[in-house]
Design goal:
Elements: H1 6-10, E1 14-17, E2 27-31, E3 34-37, E4 42-47, E5 53-57, E6 65-68, E7 73-74, H2 76-84, E8 88-92, E9 99-103, H3 111-121, H4 123-138, H5 148-169, H6 189-212, H7 228-234, H8 242-248, H9 255-267, H10 273-284, H11 289-295, E10 304-306, E11 311-313
Parallel strand pairs: 2-6, 3-7, 6-8
Antiparallel strand pairs: 1-2, 3-4, 4-5, 8-9, 10-11
Length: 340
């Protein structure tokens, strides 16, 4: 959308296909359109002032995640087609910011969730992930063997340095972050813009986490909240997005509104989505990312837990031994039409 005229931009339909992470992993953001199933496929349609219906057909078979922004409606047959093809469908705010909920295909793999849970449950592995997050945020490798408390101090020092640099840039008094929601109305414009911008960023991150099938609650740095992992991932991008944006709005009369608007029109947060996917995969299991990408398009059945055989064995197999042992073909399994 253009930033020249906000009213005009908000009334213009958007279909923003984002760069693909792989052939089977792409995101589409849509707003102010009606998504319907026709005889030949699923399409996004709009009606012109003269009553003419314009249709754009959507690539349901190669779409990883569909974000439904404001002004969008979708019919049940169209939604069912997306879910049959393994597409996660998310309802979001304008420009992909904010996250209201998601539909996940019932056949979706738990590959990344299993890696997340395994890393979360292992203290040594959890510390490795926390260290990797620090390195990604500041492009600086912490000293070997530093405990979590030292990582927090290093992170705090880096953020204070960033605040000082931005305060100097805009010729402001030293900045102090204030989280007190009870005194929110008395906060300065920077704190208000920072809070609103972070809420928008959390929405985009939550969408990515939902698409990968991970848990938003199992964080590696943050702990004890339903969105702990959302906060972990969002912290990777604040220094280059929400923090400089908040300082740039230090003189705004409406810092919260202006922060959300600029994130949609200038920063275009949804364009960070492919990078977020890659970063989360790298953090959870860098050695398995390529393997999973290749497996995304393959038909899969549920696996069976096997602690003595490497973690799991294939489902759809009779393990009784003898002549009866064979793989069960897909045609004999109770798989919904289009399932994989």
């Amino acid at each position: 959308m253009s930033a020249d005229n906000p009213r005009t931009a908000l009334a213009r339909p958007t279909l923003a296909m984002l760069p693909r992470v792989s052939d089977n992993l792409s995101f589409l953001y849509a707003d102010i359109v009606r998504i319907v199933q026709t005889d030949t496929g699923v399409c996004a349609e709009t009606e012109t002032d003269s009553g003419h219906i314009q249709r754009v057909y959507l690539p349901t078979a190669s779409l990883g995640c569909l974000l439904l922004g404001p002004g969008t409606s979708i019919t049940q047959p169209a939604l069912a087609t997306f879910l049959r093809h393994g597409t996660t469908v998310v309802t979001s705010g304008s420009g992909g910011i904010l996250h209201y909920g998601a539909w996940q295909p019932s056949e979706k793999s738990t590959f990344w969730l299993q890696h997340q849970v395994a890393a979360y449950a292992d203290e040594a592995r959890r510390l490795e992930v926390a260290r990797a997050m620090y390195e990604m945020r500041f492009e600086e490798t912490p000293p070997a063997g530093v405990p979590v408390g030292q990582l927090r101090r290093l992170e705090g020092n880096r953020m204070q340095k960033l605040y000082r640099n931005l305060s100097t840039k805009y010729k402001l008094q030293p900045f102090r972050r204030n989280y007190d929601p009870g005194a929110w109305d008395r906060q300065n414009p920077i704190n208000k813009a920072y809070g609103a911008a972070n809420a928008a960023l959390y929405g985009v991150v939550h969408t990515v986490i939902a698409h990968l099938g991970c848990s938003p609650a199992l964080g590696f740095v943050h702990h004890g909240k339903q969105h702990s992992f959302v906060y972990d991932v969002a912290d990777l991008y604040k220094a280059e997005t929400t923090v400089p944006l908040a300082f740039s709005l230090h003189a705004s009369d409406f810092p919260e509104r202006d922060a959300r608007y600029r994130l949609r029109t200038h920063y275009r947060l949804y364009r960070l989505i492919p990078r977020m996917v890659r970063d989360i995969q790298y953090l959870l299991a860098p050695e398995d990312a390529e393997e999973e990408d290749e497996a995304e398009g393959q038909w899969r059945v549920v696996e069976l837990w096997d602690p003595d055989g490497g973690g799991s064995v294939g489902g759809g197999v009779n393990y009784g031994g003898g002549d009866a042992a064979r793989a069960v073909p897909a045609s004999e399994l109770d798989v919904p039409e289009g399932g994989h």
